[in-house]
Design a protein that fits this description.
The chain is α+β, with helices and mostly antiparallel strands. It is built from one helix and ten strands, in the order αββββββββββ. The chain folds into two domains: about 40 residues; about 100 residues, Rieske Iron-sulfur Protein, CATH 2.102.10.10.
Length: about 150
């Protein structure tokens, strides 16, 4: 009888040890994945220069809406040069339009207003419009947009 009882005790111990190790390993793996979710590895942003045409394509004081690589942008030409902004309002993502008379970007959703530098000046938008770099090469304008 003592041998049977001793065998049962070892089996039970080994069974619980294997189950405990499996549980510990599983929880450790789950914890590691959770940390990876909380602290994602930074992926470098890649930018692509997209040709938008000659500077004369955009009249001074006016803005031209464009769709470049899935990015809806507004290219504005002022006396200071050419700038490009995302057309997505920083409040709800509605598409802003340019008011030449007011020299402002206006959002139709909640009457958000941005000045010609993209800065939010009225309404609910919490921050300025996203800005894209414009580069002039050989009389042609390029906009650097983020590529996927």
């Amino acid at each position: 009888m003592a041998i049977i009882h001793d065998d049962f005790g070892r089996r039970r111990f080994l069974s619980q040890a294997v189950m405990g190790f499996g549980l510990l390993f599983g929880m450790g793996t789950l914890g590691l994945r959770f940390l990876q979710f909380l602290i994602p590895s930074p992926t470098p942003k890649r930018y692509e220069a997209v040709l938008i045409g000659a500077e004369s394509r955009v009249p001074v004081g006016d803005a031209v809406p464009m769709d470049l690589g899935g990015q809806k942008i507004m290219v504005l030409r002022t006396n200071d040069g050419v700038v490009a902004f995302s057309r997505r309002c920083t409040d709800l993502g509605c598409l802003v339009s340019w008011s030449k008379e007011r020299e402002q970007f206006v959002c139709p959703c909640h009457q958000g207003v941005f000045d010609k530098t993209g800065r939010n000046i009225a309404g609910p938008p919490p921050r300025p419009l996203d800005r894209f770099e414009v580069v002039k090469r050989g009389g042609q304008l390029y906009v650097n947009i983020q590529s996927s």
